[in-house]
């Protein structure tokens, strides 16, 4: 067996087991796994295989389940996912897909299941794309609790699920006054989009810190906070630093707050590459010693991150309904803390990369009820390039299904307030 294919599938197998069995984020898993494998081709191929399995997990399971008498151990189920994904979605040659998957089972201590793996994959290969006939692919690929919540919110979950069927382009925020690298399309303000597969570190100006990776939706909260030259600004929960960079570029005197040591390291590295200065504070953003200090605060709160499933399909499988209420409580603590840090007359932008209304729309209603805050509504004039994102309440709600002809965007929510 080819060593490259072996490494590719081994990385994919170990990563998927960590994500699906232990609810670990794919980014965290890959940081550890890929450090053990030097070949960039293996890494790229493994990532493509992993993401395919996560995006199409429901469909893959629907293909496999009728071919089993009983459920195998979870690692064997992962091996079957990998094999069927190669045959149905990645168009790996039949012989290669079956043999390498059987060998993967053997190598990982599941020799007793090699016959099962072989039989299932041969049946799938015999049927080919006919396996997909009659399957409601969109419905299968979204966990039922998310489908129901998004349907109730009016977000058209079938359209959202269709976002799993295409690769995602690269968005960059470019420093004001500088030219964007060649090959991009201007989306809005200083945000540019590049074709799927673009390697950011290969673009002219990367080493010089002329731009940073940031989905266009993620760039909106800092943009809409409308920071003016010399204003004091707090960026709570600041890593990886894209929003901090925007606030600094707008002329703010920025305090960037981050609790996690690993994320602090990344924040510092990103600001150093961009040659931008901010005061970095490692702390729980709810425990700072400020009072009536800031002209503006950006609270991009910790959340379920279900809005970024296009780029990170693992969130569909590692997030559970019971986590939402815990996150809502954390968000409310941060909202109260931000109120204390903000000057009277100061602006507060609340944002989350979540499609769960409990973390977004319902939090904005809660904030609107607080005696210290008044809504500072956003209008179509603020986002003329994305008018469909403005709600009747004057909030911004982006959905991954928006701009589908351009490649979509992340799901974000943002609401702006002023302290009385």
From TrEMBL:
Catalytic machinery residues: 353 (nucleophile)
PROSITE patterns: NOL1_NOP2_SUN, SAM_MT_RSMB_NOP
Domain of life where this protein originates: Bacteria
Entry-linked Gene3D superfamilies: NusB-like, Vaccinia Virus protein VP39
InterPro entries named among the record's database cross-references: MeTrfase_RsmB-F_NOP2_cat (IPR049560), MeTrfase_RsmB-F_NOP2_dom (IPR001678), NusB-like_sf (IPR035926), NusB_RsmB_TIM44 (IPR006027), RCMT (IPR023267), RsmB/NOL1/NOP2-like_CS (IPR018314), SAM-dependent_MTases_sf (IPR029063)
Domain named SAM-dependent MTase RsmB/NOP-type: residues: 136-420
Alphabetical keyword list: Methyltransferase, RNA-binding, S-adenosyl-L-methionine, Transferase
GO BP, one annotated term: regulation of DNA-templated transcription
GO molecular function, one term: RNA methyltransferase activity
Keyword RNA-binding: yes
Annotated positions binding S-adenosyl-L-methionine: 237-243, 258, 284, 300
Sections of the chain in a coiled coil: none
UniProt similarity note: Belongs to the class I-like SAM-binding methyltransferase superfamily. RsmB/NOP family.
Name of the protein in its database record: RsmB/RsmF family (RsmB)
């Amino acid at each position: 067996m080819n060593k490259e294919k072996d490494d590719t599938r081994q990385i994919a197998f170990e990563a998927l087991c960590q994500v699906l069995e232990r609810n670990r984020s794919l980014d965290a898993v890959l940081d550890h796994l890929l450090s053990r494998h030097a070949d960039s081709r293996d890494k790229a191929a493994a990532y493509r295989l992993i993401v395919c399995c996560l995006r199409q997990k429901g469909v893959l399971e629907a293909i496999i389940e009728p071919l089993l008498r009983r459920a195998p151990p979870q690692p064997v189920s992962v091996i079957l996912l990998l094999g069927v994904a190669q045959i149905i979605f990645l168009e790996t040659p039949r012989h290669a897909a079956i043999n390498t998957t059987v060998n993967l089972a053997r190598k990982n201590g599941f020799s007793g299941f090699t016959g099962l793996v072989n039989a299932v994959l041969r049946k799938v290969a015999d049927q080919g794309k006919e396996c997909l006939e009659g399957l409601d692919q969109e419905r299968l690929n979204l966990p039922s609790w998310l489908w129901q919540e998004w349907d109730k919110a009016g977000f058209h979950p079938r359209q959202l699920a269709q976002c799993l069927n295409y690769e995602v382009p690269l968005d960059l925020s470019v420093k004001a006054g500088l030219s964007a690298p060649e090959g991009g399309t201007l989306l809005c303000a200083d945000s540019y989009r590049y074709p799927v597969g673009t390697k950011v570190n290969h673009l002219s100006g990367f080493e010089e810190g002329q731009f940073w990776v940031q989905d266009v939706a993620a760039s909106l909260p800092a943009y809409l906070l409308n920071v003016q030259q010399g204003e004091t600004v707090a960026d709570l929960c600041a890593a990886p630093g894209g929003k901090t960079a925007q606030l600094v570029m707008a002329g703010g005197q920025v305090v960037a707050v981050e609790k996690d040591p690993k994320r602090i390291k990344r924040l510092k590295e990103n600001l150093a590459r961009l040659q931008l200065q901010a005061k970095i504070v490692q702390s729980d953003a709810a425990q700072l010693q400020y009072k009536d200090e800031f002209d503006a605060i950006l609270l991009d709160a910790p959340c379920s991150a279900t809005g970024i499933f296009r780029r990170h399909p693992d969130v569909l499988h590692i997030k559970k309904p019971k986590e939402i209420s815990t996150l809502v409580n954390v968000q409310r603590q941060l909202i109260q803390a931000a109120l204390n840090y903000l000057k009277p007359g100061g602006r507060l932008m609340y944002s989350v990369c979540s499609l769960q209304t409990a973390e977004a729309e319902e939090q904005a209603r809660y904030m609107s009820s607080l005696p210290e805050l008044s809504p500072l509504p956003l209008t179509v004039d603020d986002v003329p390039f994305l008018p469909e994102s403005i709600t009747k309440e004057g909030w911004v709600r982006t959905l991954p299904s928006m701009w589908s002809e351009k490649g979509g965007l992340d799901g974000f929510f943002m609401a702006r307030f002023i302290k009385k």
